[in-house]
Design a protein that fits this description.
Elements (H helix, E strand, L loop, with lengths): L12 E5 L32 H11 L6 E5 L9 H11 L4 E6 L4 H11 L3 E5 L5 H8 L5 H14 L3 E7 L8 H10 L3 E6 L17 H12 L3 E2 L10 E4 L5 E5 L12 E4 L4 E3 L8 E2 H6 L4 H13 L5 H4 L12 H4 L2
Parallel strand pairs: 1-2, 1-10, 2-3, 3-4, 4-5, 5-6, 6-9
Antiparallel strand pairs: 7-8, 8-9, 10-11, 11-12
Helix pairs in contact: 1-2, 1-9, 2-3, 3-5
Bound molecules: S-adenosylmethionine and iron/sulfur cluster (2 copies).
C-alpha cells in the first residue's frame, strides 16, 4: 500500500537542495547582510554526494515517489549536475525529474542536462526591467542573459516554465510586462505570493500581494481571466486562461494554502529530510547514509517519519502565536 501521512497525504515529490550556495543574493531569499563573506556555507564534506542523494531517491521509489525537483541555492553552481540526473534516470525511466534555477548558467549547461535525462526546467525571474532585476537579485546579471538560457533550453526541446515572486510595492509593476514576455516566448509564467520562509527576509503580511490582487492587475490589462481545472491535486500552481487562451499560474500559498494536498518532502544540502518548507528541524539522514545504511533501512526511517507527519503550516499561519525559527529556503530547497 502507498505510504500516507497522518492526514492521508502520499509522498510523491522530493525536492533536493544540492548546494546552499548561490550566485545571486535575492533580497527576499539570501539578503547580503545575512549571506555576506562572513557567512558559513557548508563545507564540501558536509554536503551529500550524488551517490548519497541517489540512494535516498532509490529508497523512496517503492514508497510511491514519482517526481524529483533539483534545487538549492543555485543548483547549476554544483559541478557535474548531469551526473546526478543520469543516476536518477537510471533508477527509473518514468521518474519526473525537474530543475529550478535562476538560469544564469543555463545556456552553457542546457544540452548536457537534456542528454542526462532531465524532463523540464523552472526558471525564476522576478523582473524584466534590468535595474529592478539587478536590485532584486543584488547582481550584475541581466534579464537578457536569463532569456538566452531559456531560449537555448526551448531550442533543444527542454520544456520551460517561469516562476516570479511578487513583493508588493517592489515588483508588482512587472506582472504585465513579464506575462507579455512569456506569452511571446510561449512559456507559462506562474506568480508566487511572497512567503515567510526562513528568518532573514523581513517578511510581513503587508508585503504580500495576493493571487486575487495579481489577477486584478492582469484583468485590467488583458481582460477577464478564466480558471482552468488542475491536472493533479498536488499541483501547487492554479492555472488561469487569459482572453487570448494563454495560461498564467498562481502559487497562492499565503492567501489560499494548499497543505491538504501537499505530498512534498525535502532533502537539504547537508542531508536532512524535512516534511514541510516551514519545518524548524529535519531528520539527519546523512549520518545514517554514512554509516552504511541499506536502501531498505533508509526507507524504513522515512516511512516512520512520513507516517507521523502532521504539517500544515500555511493553513495555521495566522493562528500561530509563538515565534518560529524555520530553516532558510536556500538550505532546504525552494
Ligand atoms: N536558485 C534557484 C532559483 O532561484 O530558481 C533555486 C532555489 S530558489 C530558493 C527556489 C525558488 O524559491 C525560487 O523560485 C525563488 O523565487 C523562491 N523563493 C525564495 N524565497 C521565497 C520567498 N520568501 N517566498 C516565495 N518564494 C521564494
Ligand atoms: Fe539564489 Fe534562488 Fe535564493 Fe535567488 S531565490 S538567492 S537565485 S537561491
Ligand atoms: Fe506543504 Fe508545509 Fe507548504 Fe503546507 S506549509 S503546503 S505542508 S510545505
Amino acid at each position: 500500500m502507498q505510504l500516507q501521512d497522518s492526514l492521508g497525504r502520499p509522498l510523491r515529490d522530493l525536492r533536493i537542495s544540492i548546494t546552499d550556495r548561490c550566485n545571486f543574493r535575492c533580497t527576499y531569499c539570501m539578503p547580503r547582510e545575512n549571506f555576506g563573506p562572513e557567512h558559513d556555507f557548508l563545507a564540501k564534506e558536509e554536503i551529500l554526494s550524488y551517490e548519497e542523494m541517489a540512494s535516498v531517491v532509490a529508497s523512496l521509489l517503492p514508497l510511491g515517489l514519482a517526481k524529483v525537483r533539483i534545487t538549492g541555492g543555485e543548483p547549476l553552481l554544483r559541478r557535474d549536475l548531469p551526473v546526478l540526473i543520469a543516476m536518477l534516470r537510471d533508477l527509473d525511466s518514468e521518474l519526473d525529474i525537474a530543475l529550478t534555477t535562476n538560469a544564469v548558467l543555463l545556456e552553457r549547461h542546457a544540452e548536457a542536462l537534456l542528454k542526462s535525462g532531465l524532463n523540464r526546467i523552472t526558471v525564476s525571474l522576478d523582473a524584466v526591467e534590468t535595474d529592478l532585476f539587478q536590485a532584486i537579485t543584488d547582481s550584475k546579471n541581466t534579464p537578457e542573459e536569463i532569456f538566452k538560457g531559456i531560449e537555448k533550453a526551448q531550442q533543444i526541446g527542454l520544456p520551460v516554465k517561469v516562476n516570479c515572486v511578487i513583493k508588493k510595492g517592489v515588483n508588482d509593476s512587472q506582472i504585465v510586462p513579464l506575462t507579455q514576455a512569456c506569452i511571446e516566448r510561449n512559456i507559462t509564467v506562474r506568480f508566487i505570493e511572497f512567503m515567510d520562509v526562513g528568518t532573514t527576509n523581513n517578511w510581513n503580511l503587508d508585503s504580500v500581494m495576493s493571487g486575487d490582487e495579481m489577477r486584478g492587475v492582469l484583468r485590467d490589462h488583458f481582460g477577464p481571466l478564466e480558471p482552468k481545472k488542475s491536472a493533479h491535486p498536488s499541483d501547487v500552481a492554479r492555472l488561469w486562461h487569459l482572453p487570448d487562451g494563454s495560461k498564467v499560474g498562481f502559487i497562492e500559498s499565503v492567501s489560499k494554502p494548499f497543505c491538504g494536498d501537499c505530498s512534498r518532502a525535502r532533502l537539504s544540502a547537508h542531508g536532512s529530510i524535512y516534511t514541510c518548507l516551514f519545518s524548524e528541524k529535519g531528520f539527519d539522514l546523512r549520518g545514517v547514509l554514512r554509516f552504511g545504511a541499506e536502501k531498505e533501512e533508509i526507507a524504513t526511517i522515512i516511512r516512520e517519519i512520513w507516517t507521523h507527519r502532521e504539517n500544515r503550516y500555511s493553513e495555521l499561519r495566522t493562528q500561530l502565536k509563538e515565534k518560529r525559527q524555520p530553516v532558510e529556503m536556500s538550505f532546504i530547497g525552494g
